[in-house]
Amino acid sequence: MADRLSIKRAVGAVGGSAGTALTNLLHGLAIMQWCSQREYGVFAFLLVTQALLMGLSNALLGSPALIELSACEGPERDDRMRSYLLVNLMLSFVAGLLQASVAWGMDAPTHTSIAFGFSGLFTTLRWFGRAYGNNTHAHHRVVASDAVYTAVGLSGIFVLFATNNIGLLQTAWLNAAAALLALPALSRSFHRLQWSALLSVFGGNKQSKKSDVNGRQASVWWIPFREGFQRQGQHALLGVVATEATANAHPYIVTILLGSEAFAPLAAAMLLFRPLAVVNMSLTQVERPRLRKLIHQGLAKEAQHSLKRFRILNLTAWLGNVLLACGILGFAANSYWKEPATMPIFQSSLYMLIIIRLLSTFRAPSSVLWQAHDQFRALSRFTLYSALITVPSTTLLAYFSGAEASLIGILAGECVLLYLIMGPRNKKLLNEH
Fold first, then answer.
1. Roughly how many angstroms between the first and final C-alpha of the chain, as a whole number?
2. For 90-104, how does the pLDDT look when each residue is reduced to its tens digit (9 = 90+)?
């Protein structure tokens, strides 16, 4: 086994993620240029909620499923994985309903809200398919799925540009179509288990009940997921919610307190860092299974080498994204953001986000290391402490000082989280496991 994250796999992960990020970036730019500031605020807030849903998928399904896949093999593993695939279907439908409800609650037309609902459903469904492919080392299928998503998304947006037919409705349906058409490119075992999981529920399985570890009666399909949730998922879920509060409290707080128009200039700055977010998430999906395997084989030195390269790749992505953002700010700021009244808010938000994204990018590999050590409880505690600082400070700053000031609260939370995860005391504790 190689002692480091291979260049080929890293390039595949970054390349597929870059295409997905570019698609999302162009969709956002299209809405920003051709629609109102309020409509762009709606679109940007839905992007934030979609990222949250991806994080929930990682916590509830991705992390526990990785442990299931490494703990057993053969028919037993397939039987247990069907539980996660059925929960993925449920989560995807919930995601669709949530996206539709949020869009409708922000005064989007009903048919546009429905389109965003389908987009949320198919995007969330595909996200766990990507995690399954990476966890089973079917990386080429993940790259193929990303390529299909990119091809459909980019060609679609160019058609909308050419026909001058850009709007929330069109971009929502385009994203839904891209995610749906990218699903078949995922690994065959994922689709086989997905269909057999459905048949096991709706086919009238005679042994539909059995006792769980506590002696309680439960549906057979539900038990593996529940056991995984009790071991890792509940702590990972708390960590995701607390991390979301640390890193992305301002979209929710600013939108609720000040409205989607006030959030729009912040969202325009955040959109420029969308490529970094997608690349970081994909690199995490690729490296987390490898890092866990190295650690459980006792290859501590090799794990440290892999972690070092992981951090270098993340920081390289940050640097590239900063150069892109600064290039737009220096040469095309007025073309990118066409609202002179809120241009100072956009600029100050961008400068703050450069620092915030540096801190989150630097600590992300260490967070994955804690996950690889199965230290979900400790990691969730760290993120909770950070959120207890971020949420009240962000709320007060947004209310009294305006939308861009809310980012100071996010920066404070990131500093606390970086210290807790990478501080000397906790590093020593981690090395003892």
1. 22
2. 899 999 999 999 999
